[in-house]
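# step 3/5: fold
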Amino acid sequence: MRCLMRVANRLQGLAQSEIRRMTRECERVGGINLGQGICDLPTPPLVRDGAIAAIRENRSTYSFAEGARELRDAIARKLARDNGLQADPAKEICVTVGASGAYTAAIHALLDPGDGILLFEPYYGYHLNAALVAGLTAEFATLRPPEFTLREDALEAAITSRTRAVVVCTPSNPSGKMFRPEELEALARVARRHDLLVITDEIYEYIRYDGRPHVSPATIAGLRERTVTIMGLSKTFSITGWRLGYTVAPAEMTRAITLVNDLYFVCAPTPLQLGAARGFDAPRSYFDELQSGYQRKRDRICAALRRAGLEPIVPEGAYYVLAGCAGLGFKTSLQAAMHLLETTGVASVPGSAFYRGGEGEKLLRFCFAKDDDVLEEACTRLAALG
């Protein structure tokens, strides 16, 4: 009898990311995981207690597909206060199952199979693989370290007849790059010339260093009407397992995104939405302390990497650092990452996870969103290599 069970063709060639592979390898040796972006810092009491209160009040039914009104109202206030964006919470905001769910809903709602989607290298692997599963054609523009500057001529050269969308991650995972207004203005000119959709990932908007301001691309002239802004709560409030994100876009786009969000996910967890809504009432000091705390962690790990003979590319934002590993003497970044894990018990992610070709083979990525004691132990182990 012929077996009808088979894996869908659209999954051919895809596998779990190097990030998850290194997490499994780290568990095997009982190491310290600076690979996967797992933030193990405590959830703010305001957010935690808000969710507990919602559960105790039996707020456990479905929310609207676009999200609980309380959270959408809080998001609209936050956008005006912190991002300079005006958004109608009834028509232009959709709460999703994480920022990853927002990205999935957006690309399925607004792009068709075969459309080209342009990613900046180094890219976040989820942006690539989710696009491939959606049947999109991945295209690339490489940004060169250490500044990862977006140049208009290079962006223009990467556009093809298929290109329909550009993905901008700022602050960037994995590079920590924060795009400046003049770079986003160049993006706007190219997007207007080619009538492109711009999809942003701004999940790390509050995690930035050295006083740098976060610039939301949708605030740039000519981008608001063609931009889907993706933001989230996981990193800001250390609730990665709650799976809460949101999109901000013009009403027609938001209607389409909400439809896909409903079909794929129904809604984000209602009591967790209500808890997260409370987080935006946190005092300014919370966000200031978030930044200063992460900056201390960034500076600590960069110092340890230098002592280990690695070459950190100091990030401007987010909680990852890319480091050159050529000095370890290995041909591939996977070999370097495995050597580091076996000799120090510290897991990183091979740079090849963020590039198509060989540019990533001399890089490793480290996540420093860890409790101070855990990070200190990892830094001590790394520094011992030097």
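# step 4/5: annotate
The longest strand covers residues 163-169.
# step 5/5: archive (pending)
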